[in-house]
Every structure is written in structure tokens, then in C-alpha cells.
Design goal:
9 helices, mainly alpha, disordered N terminus, 76% helix
């Protein structure tokens, strides 16, 4: 009886998680395929919501400012292609500094995460425009498979925790399963694109970066004492809870792009 109850509790969030995940995946795939304003607009909305969630987590008392921060952040991502890079960087930094002034605590956390969110959002839009949808499908699929493989392996095999003080649910079995899943995604894209064999180890590093994004958000939530960034998405929590892995992955690829040329993953 206890085992049945335990197993029921173990998978209690699976149904809403799968349904919400499928709907988000369908919306994301459609936007990536269409590109242009459809993809750009979706990213602006997502980043705006994540900035709102961040502000609410750090200081629930400034609810009206949280909404304004979200609107401004989304608008900045939407307007990014029309703004010179130096001006865009200045506006991002000014936004982070101005926001810090309205928090009694956690000012540095707000600045760091706002800059990371805006950089990732603007970077995603730029990479879609420069490298095409196939590249973005690869990145998003690596993140999704890493998350799914980690979820099921962690629930089924359990075992030692990866970093219990920061993310008590994440296990080594789930972490490694995520790497294996990412390797599979890399192999899949090798079969029908012109990407080189480097895509395999880059996929694994991308998976690790997405896991670090998840851990960073977990650390943030533990710091401020909340379970989820919000309750917008059934089974997932908030937008930040769902896209923290994408945040880590995109920032990793932007960092890689500073040092090496990232070619488009074109179809054969």
C-alpha cells in the first residue's frame, strides 16, 4: 500500500507536465518554423514574463513595478534589431541598474539575471535570423531531451544527488541521462545535416549548460524561499521554471560564438 501511494506521488505531476509541455512545444516549433515577427514576438513575450517573475520572486511588494519591468524588458527584446548594439548594451545595463534601486535586498541578483535574460532573448532572435531554424531546433531539442531524460532517469533510478544544497531533486543518474540524450540528438542531426562530428560533444556541453541554467534558477528560488517562479504553467510552475535550461544553453552558445565561428546547421 505504501509503495502504491509512494509511486502515485512520484508521478503525480506527470499528466499536467506532459500536456503543458506538449502545448508549449507545439507553439515553440510553430514560431521557430515561421520565424520573423512570430518567433521574435514570442521570445519578447517569454522574456517579459520571466523578468516579471524574477521581480516578483525577489520582492513581491513591488508588484506594479514588476509588471512595468516585464513590459520594458519584452519591449527591449522586440525593438533590439532596430537599435545599434552599443546603445542596446547601454539600455540593458541602465535597466539593470535602475531596477536595482527599487529593491531593498537581492539587488545584485536582479541585475545579473536581468542582463542574462535580455542577452539570451536578444541572442535567440539574432541566431534565428543569422543561422536559420534548423540550428534553433537542434538547440531547443537538446534542452528538451536533456530535461525529459533527466526527469525520468532521476525518478526511476534515483541515487546520489548532483548538488543537494542547491537543487535537492537533481540526481547524478538524471544528469548523466541528460548528457546521453543530448548525444542522441547530436547524432540525429548528423544524419540529415551538414554539421561536423563536433556537434556530438557540443551537444553534450550544451546539455550541461542547460542543466546549469536549471541549477542557477533553483539556487535563486532557494535564496528567496519560493518553490516556483509563478503558477502560470500547470505541472511546470512559471515561465522561468520551464525556460531556465534554454537560458543556460543560449548563453553558452553566445559565449562559444565569441571565440569560434558558429556555422549554420543546414540540411543536406
Amino acid at each position: 500500500m505504501n509503495k502504491t501511494v509512494s509511486n502515485s506521488g512520484l508521478w503525480a505531476d506527470l499528466a499536467p507536465r506532459v500536456i503543458s509541455g506538449a502545448l508549449m512545444a507545439a507553439l515553440g516549433v510553430t514560431a521557430i518554423h515561421l520565424g520573423g515577427i512570430w518567433f521574435h514576438g514570442l521570445i519578447a513575450i517569454v522574456i517579459g514574463i520571466m523578468i516579471w517573475e524574477l521581480s516578483q520572486m525577489l520582492s513581491p511588494k513591488i508588484s506594479y513595478l514588476s509588471v512595468l519591468y516585464g513590459i520594458f524588458g519584452g519591449a527591449l527584446v522586440l525593438a533590439a534589431p532596430t537599435i545599434p548594439l552599443k546603445v542596446l548594451s547601454l539600455l540593458t545595463c541602465l535597466f539593470a541598474v535602475f531596477g536595482m534601486l527599487n529593491f531593498a535586498n537581492n539587488r545584485a541578483l536582479f541585475a545579473i539575471f536581468v542582463i542574462a535574460l535580455l542577452t539570451a532573448g536578444i541572442g535567440l532572435v539574432g541566431f534565428r535570423a543569422d543561422h536559420g531554424g534548423t540550428w534553433l531546433f537542434w538547440l531547443v531539442l537538446v534542452v528538451i531531451v536533456t530535461d525529459i531524460a533527466g526527469y525520468f532517469a532521476g525518478r526511476i533510478f534515483g541515487g546520489p544527488k548532483f548538488w543537494p544544497k542547491v537543487s535537492p531533486k537533481k540526481t547524478w543518474s538524471g544528469t548523466i541521462a541528460g548528457w546521453v540524450g543530448a548525444l542522441g540528438v547530436g547524432a540525429l542531426f548528423l544524419s540529415f545535416t551538414r554539421a561536423g562530428w563536433d556537434l556530438l560533444w557540443i551537444s553534450v556541453l550544451l546539455a550541461f549548460a542547460s542543466q546549469l541554467g536549471d541549477i542557477a534558477e533553483s539556487a535563486l528560488k532557494r535564496k528567496v524561499g519560493v518553490k516556483d517562479s509563478s503558477s502560470l504553467i500547470p505541472g511546470h510552475g512559471g515561465m522561468f521554471d520551464r525556460f531556465d535550461g534554454v537560458l543556460g544553453a543560449v548563453l553558452f552558445m553566445l559565449l562559444v560564438a565569441i571565440f569560434v565561428d558558429v556555422p549554420g546547421i543546414s540540411i543536406r
